[in-house]
Amino acid sequence: MEETNKESTKDEIKYRGIRAMPFVIGNETFEKLGTIGSSSNLLVYLTSIFHLKTITATNIVNIFNGTCNFGTLLGAFLSDTYFGRYNILGFASVCSFLGMLVLTLTAAVSKFHPPECGNQETAPICVGPTTGQMTFLLGGFGLLVIGASGIRPCSLAFGADQFDPNTESGRRGVMSFFNWYYFTRTFAVMVSLTIIVYVQTNISWSLGLAIPTITMFLSCALFFVGTKIYVRFVPKGSPLSSVAQVLVAAFKKRHLQLPEQPCFSLFNYVPSNSLNSILPYTNQFRFLSKAAVKTPEDHINSSDGSAVDPWRLCSIQQVEEVKCLLRVMPIWVAGTIYYVSVVQSQNYVIFQALQSDNQLGHINFHIPPASFIVISMLSITIWLPIYDRVLLPWLRKFTGKEDGITLLQKMGIGIFLSIVTMIISGIVEDKRRTLAMTKPMLQMTQGKGAISSMSGLWLIPQMALSGLSEAFTLISENEFFYKQCPENMRSIAASFFFVGMAGSSYLSSFLTSVVHKTSNWLAEDLNKGKLDSFYYLIAALEILNLGYFLVCAKWYKYKGRAGDNKVSERTDQDEIVI
């Protein structure tokens, strides 16, 4: 029902579909241009303008990215339970704009950042930021965190809400929207990592941060202009309460025994307005099934057949929905560990590029260090149509499966490619450091050391492989969560991806700090450190992660439907070949 009229029925909803898309897609495009344009070059900004040490800047960026992603779980909860997607998106968009405005002021106003480094014959003297300057900067980061926590889990679902799911044109519109959504995201990333980063690095930080701030203002304006034609649904409560009820009821009945035929004997109730698929009983997590054991103390409502006390008696359907959620958790852990390699490769390739020869051929053009990350995006955009149009038809004929290879197989391939990426990154870094020590260029990087004569173009293979790895793992992980979680938990499932990225950022920050304190691998001057050894360490971590993932994939039971089997025993043994 619509937010403006709580008494309206489903038939009275006026879906605007395509008419709402210019506002939703425009909001998404400008929002991505703004947030990515501001955050993609933060490492360089913090080290060159605020004169922070490399390890400090890296940890700040990791924590910032991690908090943005982890906050999506709170944003999804508040949206689904209390405020609705429209209100959360509107509030979050304004917060993002204010955060970028603060970040722009730190560059434009001299009092908000440290003075430039003084010129000395031996080495430049760089003064760090004051407490007030850091507080103002971190305040801007806080506003950006609030904005990202609301926008990321809600924007895709809000756009899909504008189409009628009960009509063919509406379903086609949703598919078209998803395509445009990812297209505009990729476009925004490409523009941010090329044009905006170039302006920031070579022209002016003030102008380079003002551009994404203006685009975020346009994003807010477009979003609110379309207010009158949006479909806005009233929140119906969070599925997290259902999860809590099952856990509490199972704990209260932990001493009970399950009946011999639980699929026939357990309490079975499905609300008439439920949108979830009816799930078959499964033998995994049997202790949770005790929540559906009916005892003499349990009472049933005579009006609809539901439990009087849902914190003591839950339906087997409710229990199986929670089991679906728990079954994806081990896969989520593997995806979280995987993303550590992505975080570290994208962070340290910037520092590798800073101490490499970034001149493009014989022309007087130097590639901005942060723009090397765009190679991974190019790799994704080139690979996806090749896979969809060329490789997938062949795989369908070879495997006899409609999907060619399964989602878990794709994720396994992506994790394997991350191992190869880290090994190649280590080899390239060893070559870069050797040339920096034996054949350095005349220039010096401010606050670091000699620039290697190795061309920065040698960093392209590791970034291309990193993008290919992401295309296999992260996209498949998103689709996996969407398909395997119950329908009423898909908003929460959408936030799993970002929460996993948050965990990866925190884990990356912890790993970086430990390695920095126990070795000289991550020195300020890469020429004095051993970044290649750090890459090999991450490769070893991913090898262990691949083994863990294969075990989890073999154990995993796919979500079924009632009627497939009396007791679902379907596993992934025919999906992952070990």
From TrEMBL:
Highest taxon, organism lineage: Eukaryota
In alphabetical order, the GO MF annotations are: transmembrane transporter activity
Among the Pfam families in the record, one is: PTR2
On whether Transmembrane is a keyword of this UniProt record, the answer is yes
Q: Per UniProt, what is the membrane topology?
A: Multi-pass membrane protein
Keyword terms, alphabetized: Membrane, Transmembrane, Transmembrane helix
Q: Where in the cell is it found?
A: Membrane
Membrane-spanning segments = 88-109, 136-159, 180-199, 205-226, 365-387, 407-428, 492-514, 534-556
Which cellular component terms (GO) are annotated to the entry? Answer: plasma membrane
Q: For this chain's UniProt record, which GO biological process terms are given? A: transmembrane transport
SUPFAM superfamilies per record: MFS general substrate transporter (SSF103473)
InterPro entries reported for this sequence: MFS_trans_sf, POT_fam
Please report which protein family the annotation says this sequence is part of. Answer: Belongs to the major facilitator superfamily. Phosphate:H(+) symporter (TC 2.A.1.9) family. Belongs to the major facilitator superfamily. Proton-dependent oligopeptide transporter (POT/PTR) (TC 2.A.17) family.
Protein's UniProt name? Nitrate transporter
Query: Which organism is this protein's natural source?
Result: Solanum tuberosum (Potato)
Phylogenetic placement of the source organism = Eukaryota, Viridiplantae, Streptophyta, Embryophyta, Tracheophyta
Gene name for this UniProt entry: LOC102590867
